[in-house]
Design brief:
By secondary structure, the protein is mostly helical. The protein has helices at about 10-40, 45-65, 75-85, 115-130, 140-160, 165-180, 185-205, 210-220, 230-240, 265-300, 305-330, 345-365, and strands at about 95, 100-105, 110. The protein has one domain. It is about 65% helix and about 5% strand.
């Protein structure tokens, strides 16, 4: 394959700008709580900056690592993914927060195995589409095997439980399968089967009661304004306060313990409050550029594996952005999905920058 002179410049620029905005806003949104709890205003910024540096190093390495070699890691990633998803469910290894057992504590860092699952599923599906390309229009020989693997994976994730990540990966896999030639009729049939199963879990299984509370609060947050509807209401108040130009960088009122953990899932609300419509629109435009360049890289890739890998990684980022913004704007139930490159979260940032590095490498070999 012929190498281009350099990686995709617009993708790299959008990534760096979003990362910079994220670091600034993590500090702005977390400084009050950080000072209150740790006696220093930059606790979260310092941790995020460390992972940003590690992530940039990972992005550089991935951009120099020939993407075709990732096919060698399909099976190892597949089994590592399942091992981590099982380990996180074991008491003493995995630990719970907000009624969900999603984290493994390594002492120096806490991470979610589902961050690995996202990449493992994209890698597995991209490779599967290449191997089974002539059968993807059939259900039994093409679609069914990958659905069985995905179903086991989603089942383990739902045991945590983590509906947001399940829907994120499920949507990404569906986009990949559709792009890989699966019939829309088959995909619609699978979706129509999955929806009632998820509905039964949410409404009748005790472990999912907090998901039901999130759903009902999304439909009418004012029914429980000091409980399950609190986050959505405070998020909308933050966005509304920002108006056109914002209240000023660092001048947010909602970060004063009104909006829970504003440096994480709801950081976009603080961006809109402090920087206004202009700042919020700028962030969306940067994400649109990133997603556009990612799909463009997929279209121009020289081989099917590069095409599907780029498509899957871009779709994964795009789906997370859409879900997060939907939650913050009150159009989707609270899911716990963070805003890529912007929200606080070490392993999530590290993995996202690695994804960008892989996209940059694919762009170097694009036709």
């Amino acid at each position: 394959m012929k190498t281009r002179q350099g990686p995709d410049a617009l993708l790299l620029l959008a990534t760096v700008l979003l990362l910079g905005i994220g670091l600034v806003m993590v500090y702005s949104s977390s400084s009050v709580w950080s000072l209150y709890k740790f006696d220093i205003s930059y606790y979260y910024l310092r941790r995020q900056a460390i992972f940003a540096a590690l992530g940039l190093a990972a992005m550089f390495l991935c951009s120099r690592f020939n993407y075709w070699n990732w096919r060698r890691f399909v099976q190892p990633m597949f089994w590592i993914n399942f091992l981590l998803l099982i380990l996180v469910l074991i008491p003493g290894i995995g630990f719970a927060r907000s009624e969900a057992q999603r984290w493994i504590n390594l002492g120096f860092v806490k991470f979610q195995p589902t961050d690995v699952t996202k990449f493992a599923m994209v890698l597995f599906t991209a490779n599967y589409l290449v191997v089974k390309k002539e059968y993807m229009h059939t259900f039994k020989r093409g679609l069914l095997p990958v659905l069985l693997v995905a179903g086991i994976t989603f089942g383990l994730i739902m045991l945590q439980p983590d509906l947001g990540t399940t829907l994120t990966i499920l949507t990404t896999v569906f986009i990949l399968l559709f792009g890989g030639g699966a019939r829309i009729l088959h995909l619609c049939g699978v979706a129509m089967t999955a929806v009632p199963i998820i509905a039964v879990l949410i409404f009748f299984v005790p472990q999912f009661r907090y998901q039901l509370a999130r759903l009902t609060s999304f439909l009418n947050p004012w029914a429980d304004p000091t409980g399950s509807g609190w986050q959505i209401i405070q998020s909308l108040l933050a966005i509304g306060s920002g108006s056109l130009g914002g209240v000023g960088l660092g001048a947010s009122r909602q970060k004063f313990l009104y909006l829970p953990e504003p440096w994480s899932d709801f950081i976009y609300a603080i961006i809109c409050e402090e920087l206004g419509f202009i700042g919020g629109a700028a962030v969306i435009i940067l994400f649109l550029i990133l997603i556009w360049r990612g799909f463009r890289i997929a279209i121009s890739a020289q081989d099917l594996f590069g095409k599907y890998l780029a498509m899957g990684l871009t779709a994964l980022i795009a789906v997370q952005v859409c879900i997060n913004l939907g939650v913050v704007l009150g159009t989707l139930p609270v899911t716990g999905i963070t805003l890529p490159l912007v929200s606080y979260g070490g392993t999530s940032l590290l993995m996202t920058l690695s994804f960008i590095g892989i996209l940059l490498n694919i762009s170097r070999y694009s036709s």
